[in-house]
Amino acid sequence: MNGLPARRDAFSAFDEFFNDFFARAGVPVSPLAARASELPAAVRARMDVIDKGQKYEVLVDLPGVSKDDISVTVEGARVAIAAETKRQRTSEQDGKDGGRVLHTERYATSYARSFELPAEVTEDGAEAAFENGVLKLALPKRATVTSKRLTVR
């Protein structure tokens, strides 16, 4: 023998160790092995936060989401975004143009993201727009209150 089976055994033990570790943590071992039923309850939405001086601009990727299914809450400097895609159920007989659907991979996904900005923001002048799967928030910074030292007479 050329020693290959021994290597396979060593690699198998190595893979089993890490597969077990990730399985206990609830992480799919391989993207190809993950099925719709094994997806996490909420996917972490990808985002960018840009400081534009007087306001923050937040861009969040929410593919497959309708604007009616997006929720944004702002409290002080904390921003929470939640969204959900809804599964479209199709029976075998319900195909377009009289065709028969043999297989479909549509499923529901929830997106969630919560973060804290470096400064508090205000609702006055805040804007939210959703286009081509990207949520764009413009969040004006709250005016800072400067302290004034009083002279005692």
General form: elongated
Helical residue percent band: 10-25%
Strand content: 25-35%
Instruction: Please state the structural category.
Output: alpha+beta
Strand tally: 8
> Could you report the average pLDDT, rounded to the nearest whole number?
75
- Element pattern in H and E: HEEEEEEEE
* Strand adjacency order, main sheet: 1-6-5-4
Biggest sheet details = 4 strands, mixed
Regions with pLDDT < 50 over 5+ consecutive residues?
Answer: 3-12, 25-39
Q: Total number of helical segments? A: 1
Q: How far apart are the termini?
A: 98 Å
Radius of gyration computed on alpha carbons: 25 Å
How would you describe the overall organization of this protein?
The protein is 14% helix and 31% strand. A hairpin with a 3-residue loop joins strand 2 and strand 3. The strands form two sheets. The chain has a four-stranded mixed sheet, with no helix packed on it. Strands 2-3-8-7 form a four-stranded antiparallel sheet, with no helix packed on it. The chain starts with a helix and ends in a 13-residue tail after the last strand. It is elongated and about 90 Å long. It is α+β, with helices and mostly antiparallel strands and 153 residues long.
